[in-house]
Amino acid sequence: MNKITAAITAVGGYLPETKLTNADLEKMVDTTDEWIKTRTGIHERRILKEPGKANSDMIVPAIQEILNKKGLSPLDIDCIICATVTPDYVFPATANVVSDKLGATNAWGYDLGAACSGFLFALTTGAALIESGRYKKVVVAGADKMSSIIDYTDRNTCIIFGDGAGAVLLEPNSEGNGVLDSILKSDGSGREFLHMKAGGSYSPATIETVMAKQHFVYQEGKTVFKFAVKGMADVSAELLERNNLTGNDIAWLVPHQANLRIIDATAERVGLPKEKVMINIQRYGNTTSGTIPLCLWEWEKQLKKGDNLVLAAFGGGFTWGAILVKWAY
Ligand code: UT7
Q1: Could you tell me the CA-to-CA distances from 98 to 70, 156, 163, 217 in Å, in that order?
Q2: May I ask the CATH class of domain 5-176?
Q3: How far is CA 241 from CA 188, 234, 247, 325, in A?
Q4: Are 97 and 57 in contact (CB under 8 A)?
Q5: Which of 152, 225, 318 to mutate to test the pocket of ligand 1 (most atoms within 8 A of CB)?
Q6: Cβ-based neighbours of 108, under 8 Å, separated by 6 or more
Q7: Which fold has domain 180-326?
Q8: What is the pLDDT along the chain (329 residues), one digit of tens a residue?
Q9: Whole-angstrom distance, CA of residue 301 vs CA of residue 299
Q10: Is 286 designated active site?
Q11: DSSP string covering 124-185, please?
Q12: Does residue 43 carry a catalytic annotation?
């Protein structure tokens, strides 16, 4: 009997309509369109601006798109995993809110936090649920409303991040397609360079933490950049090597969209020309857990059955990793 693999069988996405351009940011902080474009590759990002709208309001339409494409009912979903650092609430899990809003009353689910590597960690765990033979339809979403934790007076961070959600459906496959291998890593000693200082049990919210702006993203960009370039490139190269593959065998690199210079360095290391690299950072910036599924969503029509994809990310924690996926449709 063939081994069961977890195949991605549909992709959905959602991006808020409101655009925050570099020109807008020039009016908010001491920066320039030229600096942002040359240092990051970002031209604009999307912001979920409507009051009362949360991360789940982006995830629900992304999953709804999958259900429409596949002709499925919300009741068909067994499990929903939401990778995010901007959950609707500290608890309950965003996955609970999503299943309620969708009417996915047969699904259980949970949130997974691994910052910018969240989608990779969630995809690997979601795939394991399918590979075990126990579940038939697992939805893995990667989504963040980064605008809810960004200080729009801090030019070090506000130029980078945006809001967006992507989701994939995982189903059993016996043709050898789907999630074939993954290498995931973490190093908690890197947490001081990219984190939110307060709001957790270490430093609960007080008037002082709010006044000190400790509920926003804090990043030491240069240090994170250095680790990201090495981490993402090394792990992608390691993944290819242990699967006896070279850049020639890979149809697409699907990199986390944090900085165009990090993406370029990874592509060069694994020997892939720019035409084989999914890049949409110029339009959406860094949507944290959302970047990789949003790339799959945008490129879905260009993907062919049997294509080898390398998904790679680096993020806060530090967390990083790469996944080899053989496209199933
Ligand atoms: O997604 C999760 C993982 N995160 C990442 O991978 C992000 C990694 N880091 C980066 O992408 C980059 O480090 C940044 C885009 C955040 C910053 O770019 P950089 O080239 O590392 O700039 P820097 O922080 O070294 O700053 C260089 C200069 C500084 O001025 P001085 O000290 O040389 O006079 C900054 O003050 O640029 C200045 N600067 C800015 N200037 C205009 C910093 N931010 C800005 C800005 N506009 N927005």
Answers
A1: 19, 32, 17, 25
A2: alpha beta
A3: 26, 10, 10, 15
A4: no
A5: 225
A6: 78, 79, 80
A7: Peroxisomal Thiolase; Chain A, domain 1 (3.40.47)
A8: 578 999 999 999 999 999 999 999 999 999 999 999 999 999 999 999 999 999 999 999 999 999 999 999 999 999 999 999 999 999 999 999 999 999 999 999 999 999 999 999 999 999 999 999 999 999 999 999 999 999 999 999 999 999 999 999 999 999 999 999 999 999 999 999 999 999 999 999 999 999 999 999 999 999 999 999 999 999 999 999 999 999 999 999 999 999 999 999 999 988 999 999 999 999 999 999 999 999 999 999 999 999 999 999 999 999 999 999 999 99
A9: 6
A10: yes
A11: HHHHHHHHTTS-S-EEEEEEEEGGGG--TT-TTTTTTB-EEEEEEEEEEESSS-EEEEEEEE
A12: no
> Phi and psi at residue 29, in whole multiples of 5°?
-135, 170
Pocket of ligand 1 (CB under 6 A): 31, 35, 39-40, 116, 155-156, 159, 221-222, 224-225, 228, 258-259, 262, 286, 314-315
Ligand 1 atom with least separation from CA of 159: 48
At what angle are helices 33-40 and 260-269 packed, to 10 degrees? 20
Per-domain boundaries in the chain: 5-176, 180-326
Tell me, what amino acid is at 170? L
Task: Give the global pTM.
Answer: 0.97
Known catalytic residue at 116: yes
Residue of minimum CA distance from atom 39 in ligand 1? 156
Measured in Å, residue 222 CA sits from the centre of ligand 1 at 6
